[in-house]
Specification:
The chain has nine helices and eight strands. The chain is α+β, with helices and mostly antiparallel strands and 255 residues long. 45% of the residues lie in helices and 20% in strands. A hairpin with a 5-residue loop joins β7 and β8. The chain is globular, with a radius of gyration of 20 Å.
Amino acid sequence: IFSEITLRFHGIPEQHYVARCSFDSIEIAGVAASELLSAGLSIGKLELVDALTIEAVNRYLHLNIPEKDSLFIECSGSKKEVEGQMKLIEEIVIENKGQSFQSEDDSLGKATLWRARHEAGMAIAAAYPGQQLMSTDVAVPLSRLTEAIKNARKMVEFSGLTASIFGHVGDGNFHVVIAFDKSNQQSLKKALKLNEMIVKHALDVGGTCTGEHGIGTGKIQYLQQEHGDGYEIMKEIKHLFDPNNIFNPGILFDN
């Protein structure tokens, strides 16, 4: 139930730039992302896409992007401001061993560059026909972002499963998209365990079990771990307003 909604409108910026750069490892990309975020730049979007996802995108969209761990960046504002920021972004990227820096400001160039990120989900699905995909959805403090991404990649390798990593690292939110055989119980157990380990690490470093997808029914146990006694208080408040449990029963809370 929404009792009030407030909308805030912003004017269309004068200039809008997007950029892409690649790195030799996801750890280095994570360090570069942290450097960009701590530089005080007005970055509108900062997206990380790992090499595995870039490979899938190239096959799916018939592109020729360097198949390495990559950052996609967007900033907007006045022409002078944005051009200055893009120069500084390029400098920071190069200082952090970034490669193949490419920036675009015309409509076609921007759309082509961002297409690789926008259609990453579809590309991953096409790369694993007949398999189920499980997407984790944690977010961590920006100071722990590089550590969390590096740890997630190690967990994937340890599990023996295949998974892509990408996400909105500008707010500490990233996804590990796990491919598994839905007809194989052992494969499903491995995927669930991998998801659990990724969530646990996020909680251990002060993060959250969901950055944007929500709790639903699949993350109730993680919500309890994250909030402890606060979980029971939230449930009591919900029951106070919904004594007959008719608003989304079983969603968010276990009863």
